[in-house]
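User: My instructor asked us to take a sequence, write out its structure as tokens, and then describe one feature of it. I'm not sure where to start. Here is the sequence I was given:
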Amino acid sequence: MSDAKRFSAIFDGLKLAYGTYRVDKQQSNGKNTGKASIVREPRTTELWEGHLSGKGTAIGIIPINENNSCKWGCIDVDTYPLDHKKLVDKIRAAKIPMVVCRSKSGGAHCFLFTKDWVSAKEMQSVLTHIAAALSYAGSEIFPKQIKLELDRGDTGNFLNTPYYDAEDGLRYAILDDGSAATLSEFFDVYDKYALTPEELSSLVIDEDEAKPMKDGPPCLQHLCSQKISEGGRNNGLFNLGVYLRKAFPDSWETEILNYNMLYLDPPLPLNEVNVVAKQLLKKEYAYMCKDTPISSFCNSDLCRTRKFGIDAAISGVVIANLRKYNSQPPVWFLDVNGEPLELDTDGLMNQLQFQKACVDQLSYMPRSMSRPSWEGRINTLLDSMQQTEGSVIEVSQDASIAGQFYDYLEEWCVSMQSAKNREEILLRRPWTDEDANRTFFRLRDFEAFLKKNRFFEYKTHKMAQRLRDINGDATSIKIKGKAIRVWSIPAHSPAVSDIKTPDFGATNEAPF
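Assistant: Let's start with the prediction itself. The structure tokens for your sequence are:
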């Protein structure tokens, strides 16, 4: 088997589309930024050969396939600069069967491979636990979706695969000694660590020491696993107290003394602990997510899934992974409790319309929250979307509303029965003046054609604007002595029909 075929088998995923990424610039922190796009066609061996040689397009793969299964997952460690050797050592010490690859920006893609297809939901769940155990709970996890709505155009998020320009590129796997693995060595590492589906299901990640408060905010778990040091102890203990009041309503005042001794280094004096406890007695506070020391370790989406996380009692729903298809108008997809939801822009901005979409598509009614909370949540999702590769997808012109409109316009002018002269415009037909190279028609006749084809996206004024955009002109012409209001647009090229007459041979008999 060639290297390209073996590599493509390892990084299998959604077959009907793949991602590409064009780097535009490098940020001050070393991360590359650019434009992502989706190519809606199958991958070929030639494409993979171009990827590995560096002479073709760099390929990104959507790990979840048409059956909502996957053969690999990844934790995207977006930290710059990053000591890859220390990360590999940490993974090996935890006995986690992952392969670490350098990302195009110098971060790390930590891959978990399976030899056969497993459910995307199981892969995502295992990776979520691994990320938390490695203190990377805020990192992106692929697959981002556990289900795709392919009939609505959703393709999910792709991840750039390693070994672009395998000989001289920088997207290589890291061996245990910290050196760069050749492509052949990557195959060996894959063979060593790829799991069977049964091995994945039985994989146990020991999180007891690294993850206190499993039902609480991941930021507090992270801080407590390494202990909260001077400079953040008072705020840290206050946030621990918020958690304790939720988790232990009857004994939290005793628990806060224990947590002070267990997780603060050095512990606060008793009088300072009492000050924090008295403040917490005044009312039920929320976590101070934007303040140090917990702000640096915030993972709001994961936190909302926790029993005693933020908004748990308010929203009752986990929304994440916003992605935008840059059609006109745009189409948005948002994962609601792991299920993809399709929205227009109004549905994204208006909570009531969002709830209606949930009922229509998911048979689920999320609880309402205050308008500021909703707007803050959507703004967070939008910001995260802008920072996530492949979340803003450029679409081809024919996938947009305008593209569909112009396709119908060309069909109307070229493929339909055209008028032989200007008088036949009255028969609801378009007429092309070949000398002027312009096509004339009544707008109401074209509107009727659009309605017949169930195109209702444009009102009359919008149609007129689209016609003006292609140098169309509203005018009038004389037909049978009467001025008729028509539109004139540049003529399309005539349809070419290349249908060959079948050759039945030199016989006088009828072919049928």
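For the description part of your assignment, you could build on this observation: The chain has 17 helices and 18 strands. Try explaining in your own words what that tells you about the chain.
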